[in-house]
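Re: the request from the purification team.
They wanted to know what the chain is likely to look like in 3D before they choose a buffer screen. I agreed to run a prediction and write the result into the notebook, where they can find it.
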Amino acid sequence: MMRKTILSICRFYIDGFRAMTTGRVLWLIILVKLFIMFFVLRLFFFPDFLGTHAQGNESGYVTNELIQRAQ
């Protein structure tokens, strides 16, 4: 019973995506934007600061930085 319901829901979405025309272009735009946001921007604007300053002792480094900045 549960499996039949899940399969019917999956078929509903698959048929819906298959019948789309404008929606495919919109989904492609969304996926490209997500790729740019999470991969490209992360590589150039968000470096691995913790990996370069605290090898193996990330929690201790963060704790010390928070204490020093609070004083």
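For the purification team: The chain has four helices and no strands.
Please add any questions underneath this entry.
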